[in-house]
What does this fold into?
Amino acid sequence: MRISQLEGKRVALWGWGREGRAAYRALRDRQPELENAGSTERFPARLTLFCSVAEAVEVAALGDADLQVETELTAERLAAFDVVIKSPGISPYKPEAQQAMAQGTQFIGGTSLWFSEHADANGNLPNTVCVTGTKGKSTTTSLLAHLLRAAGHRTGLVGNIGLPLLEVLDVEPAPEYWAVELSSYQTGEVARSGARPDVAIVLNIFPEHLDWHGSEQRYIDDKLSLVTCGHPRVAVLNAADEHLRALQLPHSEVVWFNQPDGWHMVGDVVHRGPQAVFDTSNTPLPGRHNRGNLCAVLAALEALGLDAVALAPAVQSFRPLPNRLQMLGERDGLRWVNDSISTTPHASLAALDCFAGQRIALLVGGHDRGLDWHDFTEHMRDNAPVEIVTMGSNGPRIHALLQPLADEGRFGLHAAGDLPHAVELARAALGAEGGVVLLSPGAPSFGAYKDYVARGRHFAELAGFDPDSISAIPGLGVG
It folds into this structure.
């Protein structure tokens, strides 16, 4: 649905975070007036915004008399609108949303609007690469943009990585390429837009965001809808992932990475089929899984018609992203690593693998959304750090699973009330021998922090580093 198609419809916004504000500005910029049905009279577009009481105070400062703000939301109120533009963090599976849908209300997001606006007459999105996956998608998208820029192409690095798509709706001059990160909250929006991405990368699938999706299967279905329903021209898929190997995509050309006849890793060396291309051992890419995801990026570049072999060495000048296996530095004989974006147990395991053989104090736990930690616990039988500190609302549940192994002397186990307490316990546990304090929570930050960025900033501050110096995302935006 294009913004112009909202004319004559009853439209509401749901959510006033950065995505909600971007949607509001886009509507006001593109459609400041609507035609009054049945006459030639024009009047300011009337919008309704559903938001919190605190947000309503901020909205009032805008002075927009044609923006009605409501702080109580019901299915009946949602059903009064033809279209509700919701922020990504709001689940369409909420009962009030489902009831309103049953009465004809259409729910879309800013992602869907942007894709519709940018599609050509045939519904295609030339030179647009969408990236998703449970872990690694931010670094992969950023690396893609970095290599495109290294080739001299003006590129937009946008989406879930930290820049809402609607904030760059009318950017001039337009980029030659778009590198778009999509979360599982947004992948379905691509299909609903009716637009077809040029290339879509799916890195991996692990259970996550079950509270938003409602079930593990629905999470998988929603995540994969980028390629199952979005019908990209080329789908770049990880051959090592069982969910992806099972896919049948008759509407797309499928290119596999992580298999011998495509882009894959042999030790630390990237290969294209039998050809050794690039040694990644001294690159700034954090973690072997991110080096493996370089293969996905190179496959996508080839799908765009570029010389990926020639571009691969440009990874040497890549700057790692904050909060993703971010080496903060050394303080008090300890090395501090900020992996605050880790929101699944699998992500924590990948982080641990990066520091295998070193003395590690691992900080895990956060918002409890019901993910299964048994697989993580089994890995701790033979591949545990020397110390584990649990924290957050799911900390006691994780602690209980780990306690039998700790009783066997496999690792030290500590329970913290919050992040400052966890840092204090990690310091004491590693002691004079030193080691690595690794924040890789495997859980969201909700409740204790606004988001994973705020959690990472607090961790940096607790470790003795300037949080402002570690927070910027290199290359974000258009350039």
About this structure: The first strand starts at residue 11 and ends at 14. The first helix runs from residue 18 to 30. The two ends are 28 Å apart (CA to CA).
